[in-house]
């Protein structure tokens, strides 16, 4: 799993002292600073732009500015943000006419390229080509525009699905992330954690940053260990949260397992499917809940739907899993 990165969101900073606020976060152990840029059109708020970012870049040595562009014309600001010292440029998929072209331009400007999706945008909108061309995907866990909103846990299946498709990609979550919600994010597979209010308003930001990092690293270790155990002994894939095993779940599609209802078991079983598929060397691709489809060739499965990283079939086996709403 990729390295855990904690990025305080400056939306919750004292904007009149932005340079000082960013230094304060770096001293508290932040890896990146998440710079929210809003144009008043894509979101109903107006915040930041290249000049203040340039000032921060000059005043805070070694800062990594993770620029989240909540703007209607994402291609328009690439040069300005690069010249201001931006390290990463995240544009919204909803605002992009040609996302791959934006990615090319961002990389040509020597920044990391990332794409963001709003709570209402499904992961199916992110093509394999786009996912493989970016350095990071940002899954918004609130509707963008304002800090201090309630974390939307219903966005976690999207994180889990993207983690399964792109095992080594940075996956960022932003909105309502903090000590109370970190476990959901970490269990779903997020590794870049943006938190505004939870860090800036804390009495001890250092403590919050290290808590978020620690919980996420622990989840990564747990997922890795569980995955190794499954590879060693596939029959151990018992859902310890509900006491149900894979075989039982297969016969009960109407109460499907989802990342939200059974987060740890869901990720374990995605890994199991991925690895057992990979081990057949492309001769057999599994679909649904571990049901082999020997007649589906790699070419044939491409026609049915996308084959994700390591051969996971995304013709709906994961993406269209009925949601468990209770
Ligand atoms: O992009 C954002 C809002 O559009 C912010 O980064 C986000 O809301 C962080 O703030 P908080 O942690 O207080 O929710």
Automatic annotation (TrEMBL):
<comment type="similarity">
    <text>Belongs to the ribulose-phosphate 3-epimerase family.</text>
</comment>
<dbReference type="GO" id="GO:0004750">
    <property type="term" value="F:D-ribulose-phosphate 3-epimerase activity"/>
</dbReference>
<keyword id="KW-0170">Cobalt</keyword>
<dbReference type="GO" id="GO:0005975">
    <property type="term" value="P:carbohydrate metabolic process"/>
</dbReference>
<protein>
    <recommendedName>
        <fullName>Ribulose-phosphate 3-epimerase</fullName>
        <ecNumber>5.1.3.1</ecNumber>
    </recommendedName>
</protein>
<dbReference type="GO" id="GO:0046872">
    <property type="term" value="F:metal ion binding"/>
</dbReference>
<dbReference type="InterPro" id="IPR000056">
    <property type="entry name" value="Ribul_P_3_epim-like"/>
</dbReference>
<dbReference type="GO" id="GO:0006098">
    <property type="term" value="P:pentose-phosphate shunt"/>
</dbReference>
<keyword id="KW-0479">Metal-binding</keyword>
<comment type="pathway">
    <text>Carbohydrate degradation; pentose phosphate pathway; D-xylulose 5-phosphate from D-ribulose 5-phosphate (non-oxidative stage): step 1/1.</text>
</comment>
<keyword id="KW-0413">Isomerase</keyword>
<dbReference type="Pfam" id="PF00834">
    <property type="entry name" value="Ribul_P_3_epim"/>
</dbReference>
<dbReference type="InterPro" id="IPR013785">
    <property type="entry name" value="Aldolase_TIM"/>
</dbReference>
<dbReference type="InterPro" id="IPR011060">
    <property type="entry name" value="RibuloseP-bd_barrel"/>
</dbReference>
<dbReference type="InterPro" id="IPR026019">
    <property type="entry name" value="Ribul_P_3_epim"/>
</dbReference>
